[in-house]
Design goal:
Blueprint lengths: L2 H30 L6 H27 L14 H24 L7 H27 L14 H22 L7 H10 L11 H16 L3 H30 L4 H13 L2 H6 L5 H20 L8 H17 L3 H15 L4 H25 L12 H12 L6 H10 L2 H7 L6 H4 L6 H6 L1 H12 L3 H12 L38 H15 L8 H17 L6 H17 L10 H14 L14
Helix pairs in contact: 1-2, 1-4, 2-4, 3-4, 3-23, 5-8, 6-7, 7-8, 8-9, 8-11, 9-25, 11-12, 11-24, 11-25, 12-13, 12-14, 13-14, 13-24, 15-17, 15-21, 23-24, 23-25
């Protein structure tokens, strides 16, 4: 073939690639409603990315054929990285397309949706190829064997103090802090006006009790007690999140990683606002961060970290704290401990008794012991929110019910009322309906599950759509919901208890500034925001993918607590998108991403924790 024909064919191939990119970007722009004037620049950038990847691949093939060396790890070939990028892209694209179809009440399986899925998957595939290639060839984090930090423990103290002082103004800005209806449910139990109930974890309620009772006994009222408790909670959160820079320093991470971590915790309004919000989800998020880091240390040291008696005692205590701080905490520690027992088989004789003691003790305490102490168990309706939503959707859309099924559901909530109460994104309208018979459900659990299972076959499509709408916020990055609770709301009983907001700093006008700043943070990049639950989940998935590509798949065990947390929400979430339920992802995401990046010198001696 002559050089002229070869050049002509190359030009045709390049033109075809550009036109294909143009069509791909056009489809993406239509799907995402991007401005049309950016179409040509975006297509050109995508074309450059494709040509770069092709050039990298051809250069590697030429080096191999000339005998200069083996083919390096180039994404786009039939290797683990390329296959992983393809799988990840397909699932992420499906999350976008299916989520949008469910949210807009449109058909999921249609030619238009298939084309959108293909376009988004192709774009993500190319992006993931490039990112993975760059990370493998140019590690952004270069760990060095030399000692960078002479006193890493002092960094823990300094960062903790820094976080506390940075967050404390929010407590005074919304003095005595943020108190929601859920918070009030804890307060009335903490001061003895209602019976203890595990619907709001008993541990968190008991933690509040000494502060509230002390304030009441000294004439300070509940307002001072709430402020004092939230000040202590802010300090505790500062200590827990301050552990991350200390952990990075022990691993000899560069200084800039510590600085970025501090900036994330200080400038993200979620952390100062949440530290002064009376929710059990807040300390639970801090405990999840510590758990992820401790499990990483265990996996990295192949169990050596647990040979320290201090570390073992602390780890067992941390498992108890997580189990009692949220009701889904037990499932997180149960799965993680079982996996660790399998991985650390050589230490079974030493670890199995400790781990089994935790796994047995928690349900015993939360069951018979709570019953003996008069603690009410969490209502069964709390754990079957998704089945309730699936049944509610079926009833609301006149699905298939037998007379026996209709009779049973009528005893739970009259079907006409269920039709009116059903909303696509929350089970609360059904669970908290004035005619909902929670007692009947608690005494007919098996029958309820049997009716739900019997209705599955005839109403399969309804069940799937109801499930998608109830969980959409945890897997579709384009979904948002409220995140912050600002101060003390009115109309749910706080005033009757003597809880009122005040303005000791005379800076109430700044509350609007915080709301505006947070709105900008949430809406600037709505799909890829650090306060988007779906985005946090997919970032964690991408981190797990990077670990697998680097042949460090065993470290995915350290991310297991986060994935189990996500899994419990996918099984029993009462609300379609609740950021505080995923707060553990927000606290852990700096560690997850930093630990997943390739490093120049991976063989660094593990510094044992104190």
């Amino acid at each position: 073939m002559t050089k002229r024909k070869t050049s002509f064919l190359r030009i045709l191939c390049i033109l075809a690639v550009f036109l294909l990119n143009l069509a791909l970007v056009w489809k993406l722009f239509r799907y995402l409603n991007f401005p049309i004037y950016l179409l040509i620049p975006a297509a050109f950038l995508l074309f450059l990315l494709v040509m770069y990847l092709v050039t990298r691949y051809l250069a590697a093939r030429n080096r191999k054929s000339s005998g200069e060396g083996s083919v390096p790890k180039v994404p786009g070939t039939a290797c683990r990285a390329g296959i992983g990028c393809a799988i990840l892209s397909c699932f992420l694209s499906a999350a976008f397309v299916v989520g949008r179809a469910i949210d807009s009440q449109k058909r999921i399986f249609s030619p238009a949706n298939f084309l959108s899925w293909f376009a988004i998957a192709a774009a993500f595939f190319l992006a993931f190829l490039w990112i993975t290639d760059e990370l493998l060839r140019h590690p952004p984090i270069r760990l060095k064997p030399k000692q960078l930090y002479s006193q890493p423990k002092q960094l823990w103290i300094l960062f903790s103090i820094f976080f506390f002082l940075s967050w404390l103004p929010c407590l005074f800005l919304y003095y005595p802090g943020s108190v929601s209806p859920d918070s009030l449910a804890c307060i009335v139990r903490a001061i003895g006006k209602a019976r203890l109930s595990n619907q709001q974890p008993v541990l968190y309620t008991l933690m509040m009790r000494p502060f509230l009772l002390a304030s009441l006994s000294t004439g300070g009222g509940l307002t001072s007690g709430v402020a004092l408790f939230l000040a202590v909670q802010t300090a505790a959160m500062a200590v827990m999140l301050g552990y991350l820079p200390y952990w990075l320093a022990k691993k000899q991470y560069p200084v800039w990683t510590l600085v970025l971590t501090a900036i994330y915790f200080i400038l993200n309004p979620v952390f100062p606002m949440y530290s002064s919000t009376m929710w059990k989800d807040i300390p639970f998020g801090g405990l999840i961060l510590l758990y992820v880091l401790n499990v990483w240390d265990i996996v990295e040291s192949r169990g050596e970290w647990l040979k320290s008696r201090t570390n073992l005692i602390w780890f067992v205590l941390l498992n108890f704290l997580i189990s009692f701080m949220r009701n889904n905490g037990y499932y997180i520690i149960a799965v993680t401990l079982i996996v660790l027992m399998i991985v650390l088989r050589r230490d079974w004789k030493r670890l199995v008794p400790c781990f089994l003691a935790v796994l047995v003790a928690v349900p015993v305490i939360q069951g018979p012991v709570y019953d003996a102490c008069g603690v009410e168990q969490s209502p069964f309706a709390e754990s079957v929110a998704i089945p309730l939503q699936q049944i509610g959707y079926t009833v609301a859309h006149n699905g298939t019910l037998t007379p026996a099924q209709a009779d049973f559901l009528n005893q739970l909530l009259p079907l006409e009322e269920m039709k009116k109460a059903y909303t696509p994104h929350s089970a609360n309208n059904i669970k908290f309906h004035k005619d909902f018979n929670s007692g009947f459900l608690d005494t007919h659990k098996i029958e309820f599950l049997k009716v739900w299972a019997e209705m599955l076959g005839p109403n399969f499509k309804s069940y799937c759509r109801a499930y998608g709408m109830q969980t959409i916020g945890y897997w579709h990055p384009g979904i948002r919901n409220w995140v912050l609770y600002n101060g003390i709301g009115k109309g749910y009983g706080a005033e009757k208890l003597g809880l009122f907001m005040s303005d000791p700093l005379h800076a109430a006008s700044n509350r609007a500034v915080i709301s505006k700043t947070f709105s900008l943070l949430q809406n600037f990049l709505p799909t890829f925001s650090v306060v988007n639950t779906g985005c946090l989940f997919w970032l964690t998935v991408f981190a797990a993918f990077l670990l697998a590509v680097r042949r460090k798949g065993r470290f995915v065990i350290a991310l297991l607590p986060l994935f189990v947390l996500w899994g419990t929400l996918m099984i029993a979430t009462p609300v379609f998108c609740e950021f505080r339920y995923m707060f553990g992802f927000a606290t852990s995401i700096p560690a997850v991403l930093l630990a997943a990046f390739p490093e120049k010198n991976p063989e660094i001696p593990v510094v044992p924790a104190d």
